Amino acid sequence: MIPAYRTAKFARNAKKVLNLSILRALRGLFFFWLIGIFLLALAACASPQHSPTPQPAPTEHTALPPATQTIKPPPTLEVLPTPVLSEIKGPETETPTASPTPKPCLSSPLAVQPLDKISEITTQPFKMPRIMPNGSYKDDAHHGVDLGYYTRDKKLFTGTPVLAALNGVIAAIIHNRPPYGNMLMIETPHSQIPQPLREKIPAEHSLYSVYGHLQNLQPLAPGDAVTCGQQIAETGLTGFTSGPHLHFETRHGPAGQSFDSIAYYRADATKPELANYERWRMSGEFVLFNPMELLAP
Ligand SMILES: [Zn+2]
């Protein structure tokens, strides 16, 4: 039989062993829990390290789109200025296209003599003919102004370039017929007549200017446009003239007139030539005035 004190001692020992084993089990659980927390912390720390690696790629992608976006704006910037420039150039190119109606222009009819000194070489001035009661002219006096001179080496005034004094169109080309010899007539529309002369001429009238006694006519045809200052011929000795000079004659009359022939003072002058001569010189349809009102107002 086991004594009672030994049974109690055994029970106390067993209780101690049981407490120790429970403590050890709890301690083991605690360590496992700590390791688990540590591993979770590692995993939590590692996942941010892995996520930045994919993120740079997005930043590379986001870096690319901005690049294409910065490339795109310049084209739109380049496209915008170009229309603006073309719009600015547009009116400039439209202004020249509006030049079919050029400004009135006046030139010396002789290349060798400036316009402001043209009266210095007048060899015979304009002299108004008698005017009949019906408004026609007598074929007397001097219907134009004669311009000429002797050069320093005593050579005659021939071969000097003759220039169109005004803009206009060729209204007549006459080849070596009396009295004008080789002659060119230019019609200048009313809008092209320089001031102050234009104010004195009816709006429905053109200015007709005649260049007589010419040589070496430029290759021009009736209806051809000429511009002021353009060479049309040279001074010569053709037609009725006692000395070399340019006969310059001006009238105003109905717009759009032209002459295919003009001649007088010769037995071989045809009826159309005579009729045209009388119409131009004497009828009064073309109103005569002193050319110096144009050249030296
Ligand atoms: Zn003359």
Secondary-structure map with pairings?
Layout lengths: L3 H47 L5 H16 L1 H7 L1 H17 L24 E3 L20 E3 L13 E3 L4 E10 L3 E8 L16 E11 L9 E2 L4 E5 L10 E9 L16 H11 L5 E3 L2 H4 L2
Antiparallel strand pairs: 1-2, 2-9, 3-8, 4-5, 4-7, 5-6, 6-8, 6-9, 9-10
In short:
This protein has 297 residues and is an alpha+beta fold. It is built from six helices and ten strands, in the order H-H-H-H-E-E-E-E-E-E-E-E-E-H-E-H.
Question: If you had to describe this structure to a student in words, what would you say it looks like?
Answer:
With 297 residues, this protein is an alpha+beta fold. It has two domains: 4-76; 115-295, Glucose Permease (Domain IIA). Helices cover 34% and strands 19% of the residues. The chain has six helices and ten strands, in the order H-H-H-H-E-E-E-E-E-E-E-E-E-H-E-H. Strands 1, 2, 3, 4, 5, 6, 7, 8, 9 and 10 form a ten-stranded antiparallel β-sheet that branches. Strand 4 (168-177) and strand 5 form a beta hairpin. The longest helix has 47 residues, at 4-50. The protein is elongated and about 170 Å long. Zinc ion is lined by residues 124, 142, 144, 146, 247.
Number of domains: 2
Give the integer mean of the pLDDT values.
78
Task: Count up the helices.
Answer: 6
Strand portion, in percent? Answer: 15-25%
Shape: elongated
Q: In CATH, what is the class of the largest domain? A: Mainly Beta
Give helix and strand order, one letter per element, not per position. HHHHEEEEEEEEEHEH
CATH homologous superfamily placement of the largest domain: Glucose Permease (Domain IIA)
How is the CATH topology of the largest domain named?
Glucose Permease (Domain IIA)
Low-confidence stretches: 38-94
CATH architecture of the largest domain: Distorted Sandwich
Q: What about the largest sheet?
A: 10 strands, antiparallel
